[in-house]
Amino acid sequence: MSTNREKRTKWFMEARFGMFIHWGLYAIPARGEWVRSHEKMSIEEYQPFFEEFNPVNYEPHKWAKAAKEAGMQYAVMTTKHHDGFCLFDSKLTDYKATNTPAGRDLIKEYVEAFRKEGLRVGFYYSLLDWHHDDYPAYGDRHHPMRDNEAYRYKKHDFSKYVDYLHGQVRELLTNYGKIDIIWFDFSYDDKVGETWRATELVKMVRSLQPDIIIDNRLGGNIKSVNPEIYAGDFASPEQIIPPEGILDEAGNPIPWEACITMNNHWGYCADDKDFKTPKQLIRALVECVSKGGNLLLNVGPDAKGEIPEESLQILSEIGKWMRKNGDSIYGCGRAELPKPEWGRYTKKGNKLYVHIFDRGIGPISLKGLKGKIKKARLLSDGSEVNVNEPWNATEYKDYAFINFAGSRLPDDIDTVVELELKN
Ligand code: H79
Q1: Residue 185 CB less than 6 A away from ligand 1
Q2: How far apart, in whole angstroms, are the C-alpha atoms of residue 274 and residue 310?
Q3: What ligand 1 atom has the least distance to the C-alpha of 259?
Q4: 343-421 domain in CATH 2.40.10.220?
Q5: Domain residue ranges in the chain
Q6: 210-262, pLDDT tens digit by residue?
Q7: Bridge partners of residue 353, in order along the sequence
Q8: Which atom of ligand 1 is nearest to the CA of 266?
Q9: What's the confidence (pLDDT) of residue 2?
Q10: Is the four-CA dihedral 75, 298, 295, 211 of positive or negative sign?
Q11: How far is the CA of 414 from the centre of ligand 1 (A)?
């Protein structure tokens, strides 16, 4: 199981950086993808957005190009979120893009466009469904009708919902060619593991797509040394970068991917202009890699089908840095050195990447590396970096030093020095 997991996740662990896409009817109210739940909105109140959904500017090749130019290697897009609206042409429901003014299968176009850019393609599929008649409503923790008395005695047959869920996953993994990731979201309360008939579901997933990787949100314990079949291939910390990466119960690193928003919402939110800076996000990516994980960075396209201008700007800035410094990200992982005070390390083979965030004063000290550096180059331009022992540091026996002439770093976001280590 775990060796298979290693094989399946090899590309994923090397890719390190992907695009999350949250898009659906909720782009119209533009208050985030939880709008129905937060505002306890009924299906009828939400229906106008279905009637008018017409993303005239949806050209996914532009999204794919933006992802590619940012240095992303894969994408994961919502095929159905908690509101139950399907962006794909499911035979099992009428609540789908095909029946809106959009009039077509939007997932098909996404898959084709991203594949064409050479990116790996993933599907997000919500386990929750606030539209399906057989999903529990009254008394559920999250359902928009959770405390609506009209729903108190409404009958439902959860097994029919689970049939529907399995059927849709079968469609998604049958009709769109090779899919690289399936991202189930999420388990809670008693809705976990076999409630979703998770063993059966995962067996089907693997029979249709032998190489696909699955997140850990069907439940189960991915950290176990003997995990359930549905425990997943990678952990999925949300809006947090785990302090020490993620290890299994035996202390071995496991694959993980932090999913992070650019502002404070996943789905398009017209009023949320609180975007993180490119510097914060680049450093977040470096942090993930330094801890052996990936960053899945979200965009929430608007109702017309455009990625917000602020997000495009951020992606473009990240891309500029990645084009010069991508070697310190792709295929890299933990350096197994303590976190240095000026920044972070990433490592690939005998290349140690020194990510300097804080210039400090004087030489930059590298504990434990004295005598171990064969050569040092600025990653962005290949120029030589001085690592001679400075005259004023002879007493610090265990340290190597990087000497920058000036008082400023060449790159204020993250100056990367590539060290080639002796064997
Ligand atoms: O798709 C995105 C989110 O909609 C979904 N996962 C990402 C990738 C997600 N958001 N929250 N959750 C899953 C877990 C539930 C969190 C909750 Fe809450 C905390 C539900 C109620 C309190 C956050 C705050 C959501 C509603 C209020």
Answers
A1: yes
A2: 10
A3: 8
A4: no
A5: 3-328, 343-421
A6: 999 999 999 999 999 999 999 999 999 999 999 999 999 999 999 999 999 99
A7: 346, 418
A8: 2
A9: 58
A10: negative
A11: 32
Assigned token pair, 260: 């992070």
83 Cβ closer than 6 Å to some ligand 1 atom: no
Close Cβ partners of 313 (under 8 Å, ≥ 6 residues apart): none
Of 423, 382, 384, the closest CA to residue 402 belongs to 384
DSSP letter string, 286-331: HHHHHTT-EEEEEE---TTS---HHHHHHHHHHHHHHHHHGGGTTT
Over 60: is that where the pLDDT of 1 sits?
no
Helix axes 309-325, 60-70, angle to 10 degrees: 40
CA distances from 252 to 196, 255, 390 (A): 29, 10, 38
Among protein residues, the one with the nearest Cα to ligand 1's atom 2 is 266
**Atom number, ligand 1, closest to the C-alpha of residue 298:** 8
**Minimum-distance ligand 1 atom for the alpha carbon of 81:** 1
The model's pTM? 0.98
- The residue behind tokens 């690193």 is 253
Q: Which tokens belong to 62?
A: 């532009």
Strand partners for 86:
80, 96
Q: What is the pLDDT of residues 262-298, one digit of tens each?
A: 999 999 999 999 999 999 999 999 999 999 999 999 9
Residue 257 corresponds to which tokens in the numbers above?
Answer: 């991917």
Mean pLDDT of the chain: 97
CATH topology of domain 3-328: TIM Barrel (3.20.20)
Q: Which two tokens stand for residue 314?
A: 């951020």
Q: Where are the alpha helices (DSSP H) in 16-105?
A: 35-38, 43-52, 60-70
Q: Is 266 in the pocket of ligand 1 (CB under 6 A)?
A: yes
